[in-house]
C-alpha cells in the first residue's frame, strides 16, 4: 500500500478552520523553521481510506485467534474502555487541586488495595509506564534496600535461563552483574545450580512463576528461602500472573517485590506501543523506597515518572476487577490454565510439547524433530498459520527450546476456537510432510508475502525520504 505521504496532493485539505478572533502574534524568527515541515495533504475521504487500509493489514484479537505466548493477548471487554473514556477521568489535569479529583484518587486507592490483595504485597505504585519500566523500578527497590543498609558487596542478580529477555537487561541497567543459571530437565530452576551461585554478593533473584515454559515451579518456597538465607531479595516478574491471579499470591511464595503488566493481565489492550503500565508492588520493608503517586501520597522523594503514571490504564484495570469480583478473578485464571491444557492435548500426535506435562497458561512446542524429518522450521509453520487467519505464536522463545513455538490461548477463547486451532496445526503437520516447499514460501494469501528478513535486519528502511 502507499504511504500517507505518497497519497499527498499539494493544496488538498480535510478541515476548515474558523477565522482567528484574536490578534495574531508571529513567532520570533529564532523559533521559526528554515523550511516548512513536510506534512501529508489529504482530503477527509483519502484519510479515511488510508486508515481503513491500514486496518486491513493488522491482525488483532478482534480479528481472530491470537495465541502469542508470554504476552497474554486476550479480549478486553468494551465496558472497561467506556469507563476510561468518561469525561471525569479524561478531562482532568494532573496539577488540579486534590479536592477536585477525589474520584480519581479513589480509583488509585481502590486499584492499589485490590492489586495488593491479589499479589500479597503491602504497597504499590502506578508510576512505571510499562512492564520493563516496572522491572527497572522493582530492581531499583532491591538496590536501594541494600545501599541503605550499607551492604555494598551485593553486586549480583541471579536470572534463570528461561527468563524473559528484559530481566537480565534490567539487572544490567541497574548496575548489577547478571548471573545466569540453567534450568533443570523438568523446565524449572535447578536447585543445585542456584545453591552454587548464592553468596554474600547476591543482591537478588529475578523470576516469574509460572515460568516461561508454562510450568509452575513446585520448589518455589525452597527457592525463595535459599535466596533470603543468602541475604538476597526475590523479585517477581508479573508477566505470567494471568495464570494464577486470585489462586496463589507471589507474596505468599516468598517474593519481596513485583511488577504487574496491567496491559497483559488487567484489561488494557496490548500492543501497538502502548499504552501500558508496569505497576510495582512491594512488602512493607521496601515501602520507604517505593516511588509515590503524587495524587495519593504527596510527591515522594523517589520518582520514576511524572504523577501517577498512565492513569487511564489503572481505570481500565479497576473496571475489570470490579466486573469480575472475588469469584471471577480466580475463575479467569483457572480458565486460562484449562484452555492451555485443552489445546495442548488436542494437538497430541502432531507437534510435540517441549515438556509433556500439565502446564499452566501456556505451553511450548519443540519442532526440532519435525524440522529434521521435513526441513520445515518453526518459522515456516508460523508463516503458514497466517494463511489460515491465525496470528503466529511466539517463535524461538524461550531460548532453552530449539525450534520453539509458544502458545497462550488465554481464558477468553472458546472451545470451538481451540478445536479449530488444533485442526489447523494438524493440517500443517501433514502439509509439512507432503509439501514442505509450500510452507517455505508461506504466507501465500496475506497482504504481504514473506519478506527477506536477513536484508530487512541488516539494511532496514526506517523512515520515508522525499524524492
From TrEMBL:
Its EC number is 1.4.4.2. The lineage of its organism: Bacteria, Bacillati, Bacillota, Clostridia, Eubacteriales. This is glycine dehydrogenase (aminomethyl-transferring). Residues 151-271 form the Aminotransferase class V domain. It catalyses: N(6)-[(R)-lipoyl]-L-lysyl-[glycine-cleavage complex H protein] + glycine + H(+) = N(6)-[(R)-S(8)-aminomethyldihydrolipoyl]-L-lysyl-[glycine-cleavage complex H protein] + CO2. PANTHER family: GLYCINE DEHYDROGENASE (DECARBOXYLATING), MITOCHONDRIAL, GLYCINE DEHYDROGENASE, DECARBOXYLATING. Keywords: Oxidoreductase, Pyridoxal phosphate. InterPro entries: Aminotrans_V_dom (IPR000192), GDC-P_C (IPR049316), GDC_P (IPR020581), PyrdxlP-dep_Trfase (IPR015424), PyrdxlP-dep_Trfase_major (IPR015421), PyrdxlP-dep_Trfase_small (IPR015422).
Amino acid at each position: 500500500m502507499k504511504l500517507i505521504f505518497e497519497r499527498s496532493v499539494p493544496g488538498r485539505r480535510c478541515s476548515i478552520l474558523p477565522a482567528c478572533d484574536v490578534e495574531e502574534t508571529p513567532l520570533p524568527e529564532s523559533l521559526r523553521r528554515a523550511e516548512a515541515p513536510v506534512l501529508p495533504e489529504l482530503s477527509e475521504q483519502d484519510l479515511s481510506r488510508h486508515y481503513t487500509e491500514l486496518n486491513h493489514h493488522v491482525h488483532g484479537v478482534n480479528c481472530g485467534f491470537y495465541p502469542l505466548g508470554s504476552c497474554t493477548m486476550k479480549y478486553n471487554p468494551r465496558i472497561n474502555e467506556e469507563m476510561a473514556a468518561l469525561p471525569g477521568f479524561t478531562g482532568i489535569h494532573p496539577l488540579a487541586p486534590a479536592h477536585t479529583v477525589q474520584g480519581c484518587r479513589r480509583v488509585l486507592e481502590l486499584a492499589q488495595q485490590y492489586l495488593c490483595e491479589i499479589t500479597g504485597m503491602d504497597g504499590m505504585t502506578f508510576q512505571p509506564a510499562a512492564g520493563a519500566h516496572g522491572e527497572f523500578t522493582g530492581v531499583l527497590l532491591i538496590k536501594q534496600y541494600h545501599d541503605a543498609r550499607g551492604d555494598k558487596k551485593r553486586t549480583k542478580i541471579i536470572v534463570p535461563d528461561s527468563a524473559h529477555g528484559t530481566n537480565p537487561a534490567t539487572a544490567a541497567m541497574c548496575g548489577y552483574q547478571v548471573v545466569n543459571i540453567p534450568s533443570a530437565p523438568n523446565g524449572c530452576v535447578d536447585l543445585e545450580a542456584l545453591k552454587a551461585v548464592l553468596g554474600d554478593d547476591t543482591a537478588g533473584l529475578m523470576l516469574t512463576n509460572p515460568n516461561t515454559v508454562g510450568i509452575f515451579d513446585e520448589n518455589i518456597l525452597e527457592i525463595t528461602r535459599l535466596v533470603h538465607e543468602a541475604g538476597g531479595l526475590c523479585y517477581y516478574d508479573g508477566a505470567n500472573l494471568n495464570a494464577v491471579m486470585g489462586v496463589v499470591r507471589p507474596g505468599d511464595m516468598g517474593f519481596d517485590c513485583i511488577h504487574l503488566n496491567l496491559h497483559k493481565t488487567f484489561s488494557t489492550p496490548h500492543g501497538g506501543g502502548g499504552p501500558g503500565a508496569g505497576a510495582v508492588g512491594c512488602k512493607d520493608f521496601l515501602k520507604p523506597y517505593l516511588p509515590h503517586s503524587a495524587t495519593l501520597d504527596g510527591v515522594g522523594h523517589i520518582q520514576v515518572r511524572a504523577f501517577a503514571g498512565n492513569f487511564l490504564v489503572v481505570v481500565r484495570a479497576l473496571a475489570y476487577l470490579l466486573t469480575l469480583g472475588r469469584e471471577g478473578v480466580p475463575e479467569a485464571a483457572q480458565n486460562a490454565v484449562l484452555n492451555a491444557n485443552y489445546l495442548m492435548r488436542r494437538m497430541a500426535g502432531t507437534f510435540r510439547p517441549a515438556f509433556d506435562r500439565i502446564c499452566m497458561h501456556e505451553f511450548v512446542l519443540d519442532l526440532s524433530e519435525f524440522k529434521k524429518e521435513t526441513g520445515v522450521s518453526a518459522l515456516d509453520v508460523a508463516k503458514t498459520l497466517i494463511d489460515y487467519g491465525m496470528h503466529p505464536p511466539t517463535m524461538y522463545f524461550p531460548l532453552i527450546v530449539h525450534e520453539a513455538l509458544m502458545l497462550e490461548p488465554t481464558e477468553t477463547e472458546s472451545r470451538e476456537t481451540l478445536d479449530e486451532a488444533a485442526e489447523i496445526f494438524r493440517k500443517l503437520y501433514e502439509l509439512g510432510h507432503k509439501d514442505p516447499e509450500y510452507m517455505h514460501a508461506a504466507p501465500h494469501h496475506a497482504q504481504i508475502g514473506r519478506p527477506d528478513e536477513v536484508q530487512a535486519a541488516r539494511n532496514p528502511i526506517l523512515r520515508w525520504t522525499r524524492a
